[in-house]
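One-letter codes give the sequence; each number marks local geometry. A record appears below:


***
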Amino acid sequence: ARPVLVMQLRPEDEVADDEYAAILRHGGLAEADTLRLRVERDGIPPLDLGAFSAIIVGGSPFDISTPVEDKSPMQRRLEADFDALLTRVVARDFPFLGCCSGCGLLGARLGTPITRRYGEPVGVVQVTVTEAGHGDPLLVGFPDRIEVLCGHKEACDRVPEGATLLLTGHACPVQMFRVGRNVYATQFHPEGDAEGFTLRIQTYRNHGYFPPETADALITAVSAVDTPYGRELLRRFVARYVRLP
């Protein structure tokens, strides 16, 4: 079986390891089913898409909307590498799931503005399944509204041209979209669970996602609500595209 390429952009080892473990756990994957790339550290090497069954991209503390002159050389290189990779992914309609940062990177590649207009604080948000979403294999049978875990300073201002909106929200309208048949992006974290988000809140306390003094209250809030539909979406993506041994 061809492995899933799991691409991560988090510089903090503990958070990156926890995110990877959550993708494995909630996606129904073993380490042996994946190739893990820490692209913030190693960059994106030349990739033969045919060697993989699918690509999953996790979140990151980088913001696309940061002025170019304020971006580190690493971030500028990463964005250029992702732009080239996503051009190929979209052209081939290659199975792809971009979560949070992955959503911004894909939206930017498709030409939609990525700004801070629709940022959301860390926590649980309710999103609505669109009519197209109810017909999508990753969401079919879901209730009209589900709760998901998110936290982002920026988002797509509008649905990218040619994309299909699958989930929408009150504070952030573009919560999930699909391009072609197989390329997906979520503004939230489908792999998210209370344990992982508690670690992220502690780690990113001073990164501008929320007032630092609210960290304990945020941890209490994310621990009080379960978000099983996000994790089911991740499980369905893996089940749809990955032939596990």
Q: What stands out?
A: The chain is about 35% helix and 20% strand. Helices lie at 13-27, 39-42, 73-92, 101-109, 131-134, 194-203, 215-224, 228-241. The chain has a mean pLDDT of 94. Residues 61 and 177 are 21 Å apart (CA to CA).
